[in-house]
């Protein structure tokens, strides 16, 4: 009786499930991080240029009988290369034959979900200030890192002393309340570098438009600061005041942040984000088995080889403020 080898059909099922896992998980990450990352459509351009509109025109006085004054944008070029990443999963064919639990495909899918963690990791490395999986940390349009007191020319970033780095009051409930208020004031002071006009209206900097992101050590403090009716304002615990920020701003915990006391305040804006992300076009995948691979025949192994190309870069540093409690 002829023996039918169903390895290829089973691996084809693995690839189909891999693609379905990607289809479900990639949009979920993009939705979760929508306040922090502007995701661009997938392209195959290796080095794609993007123009940031640094200076927005402002209304001018128009005297009767005078002609209009045409104003334009000041474009600053951002170049984002596509960086390739690969994930190759190999297993011995005997392990597959002896797999009593029948969970090989499930574990392959779980491994592919790590591509979701890749985006999370690349994003977090910019906040940590150290490139590991990023080939490098790209500077913002003004020549400085995503969080900096000064721009690339040494001037006050966004026209404010301290730029988008705020000296913190400590990772305590009262410290967070105080620094959220200070961050609001900082954002309201940002100036357009050309028109010398404020960038944000008060409504845009309302507490409800702020999202805090901190390390795991900040979880309890953020819970209390965002939900407590009253906060202590003296060390003897005898004096407290109403928490006017209760139920306004929201927060997320990022367990990849390496500093246990620093955190970040993001401004939810309909267009501007601190980061832009080049979405991978798709997961490329091939299967190596005894029908097409010398290695598979030599080592008695099958493998699924996957790769993507993606990239993160700073977009507008005015929508992120680092609270430095160092």
Total strands: 14
Do you know the CATH topology?
Answer: phage-related protein like fold
H-E order: HEEEEHHHEHEHEEEEEEHEE
Give average pLDDT, whole number: 83
Reading off the top of the CATH hierarchy, the class is best stated as: Alpha Beta
Main sheet record: 5 strands, mixed
- Given helix and strand content, the structural type is alpha+beta
Uncertain segments are 1-7
Please give the count of helices. 7
The percent range for helix content is 25-40%
Radius of gyration: 25 Å
Q: Which of globular, elongated, flat, extended, rod-shaped describes the shape? A: globular
CATH A-level architecture: Alpha-Beta Complex
**What percent strand?**
25-35%
Number of domains: 1
Span between N and C termini? 73 Å
């Amino acid at each position: 009786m002829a023996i039918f080898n169903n390895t290829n059909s089973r691996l084809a099922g693995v690839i189909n499930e891999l693609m379905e896992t990607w289809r479900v998980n990639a949009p979920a990450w993009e939705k979760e991080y929508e306040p922090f990352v502007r995701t661009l459509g997938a392209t195959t351009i290796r080095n794609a240029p993007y123009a940031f509109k640094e200076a927005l025109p402002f209304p001018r006085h128009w005297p009767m009988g005078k002609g209009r004054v045409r104003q334009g944008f000041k474009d600053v070029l951002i170049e984002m290369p596509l960086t390739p990443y690969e994930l190759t999963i190999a297993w011995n064919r005997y392990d597959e034959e002896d797999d009593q639990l029948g969970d090989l495909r499930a574990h392959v899918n779980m491994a592919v979900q790590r591509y979701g963690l890749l985006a999370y990791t690349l994003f977090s490395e910019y906040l940590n200030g150290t490139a590991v999986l990023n080939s490098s940390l790209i500077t913002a349009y003004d020549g400085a890192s995503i969080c900096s007191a000064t721009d690339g020319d040494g001037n006050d970033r966004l026209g404010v002393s301290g730029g988008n780095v705020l000296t913190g009051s400590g990772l305590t409930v009262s410290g967070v309340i105080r620094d959220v208020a200070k961050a609001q004031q900082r954002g309201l002071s940002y100036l357009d570098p050309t028109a010398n006009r404020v960038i944000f209206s008060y409504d845009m900097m309302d507490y409800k438009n702020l999202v805090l992101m901190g390390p795991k050590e900040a979880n309890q403090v953020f819970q209390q600061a965002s939900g407590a009716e009253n906060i202590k304002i003296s060390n003897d615990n005898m004096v407290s005041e109403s928490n006017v920020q209760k139920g306004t701003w929201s927060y997320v915990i990022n367990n990849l942040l390496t500093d246990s006391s620093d955190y970040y305040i993001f401004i939810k804006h309909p267009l501007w984000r601190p980061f832009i992300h080049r979405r991978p076009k798709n997961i490329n995948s091939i299967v190596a088995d005894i029908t097409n691979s010398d290695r598979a025949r030599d080592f008695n192994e099958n493998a699924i080889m996957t790769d993507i190309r993606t990239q993160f870069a700073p977009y507008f540093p005015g929508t992120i403020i680092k609270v430095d409690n160092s």
